[in-house]
Design a protein that fits this description.
CATH class: Alpha Beta
Number of strands: 12
Largest sheet: 5 strands, mixed
Structural class: mainly beta
CATH superfamily: Metallo-dependent phosphatases
Number of domains: 1
Strand order of the largest sheet: 3-2-1-11-12
Length: 168
């Protein structure tokens, strides 16, 4: 098996940064951690790779049908997504239950707009930070998760243009 690459992002709030065409050009899959904001985000990302997304707290209307806790297996690695999870030091009970029930290797989360990488109940907890323009954050990020033939995981941070040019 070759190395697989998974683009990870969250909190786009209806905005798809044009840089994703370059940053995610060679990914095999994309996982969105919620607060998608508009169907056009999923459409644009699906042009790059298959997308697994969870519904965030702003995702109503047509996005109300996006699942709350989708799971996918990529390269033998179980990846789940859930938008509001607490923090890695205090995960909420539903998040712990998801990790255990689905035997997750990786959990993609969002909501806080704060990048975090941690371990919770054996799962790699990934909050890529916000990729969109809405919110209090000044810097914007995404991640690329590389899955090796032995299921070894490596992360690469994708730095996007600051929310306010010249400030971050």
């Amino acid at each position: 098996m070759t190395r697989l690459r998974v683009g990870i992002l969250s909190d786009t709030h209806g905005y798809v940064d044009p840089f994703f065409r370059t940053a995610f050009a060679s990914v095999d899959a994309i996982v969105h951690g919620g607060d998608i904001g508009d169907e056009s985000v999923l459409t644009a990302l699906a042009e790059l790779a298959p997308v697994t997304a969870c519904r965030g707290n702003i995702d109503g209307g047509p996005l109300r049908f996006v699942p709350l806790e989708p799971c996918v297996e990529i390269g033998g690695v179980r990846i789940g997504a859930r938008h509001i999870c607490g923090s890695p030091t205090r995960p909420d009970p539903r998040t712990r239950a998801l990790i255990r029930r689905e035997r997750l290797d990786v959990l993609v989360v969002g909501h806080s707009h704060i990048p975090v990488v941690a371990r919770v109940d054996g799962a790699l907890w990934l909050n890529p930070g916000a990729a969109g323009l809405q919110g209090f954050h000044t810097s914007r990020h995404a991640l690329i998760l590389e899955i090796g033939p032995d299921r070894a995981l490596e992360l690469q941070r994708v730095n996007l243009e600051p929310r306010w040019p010249g400030r971050g």
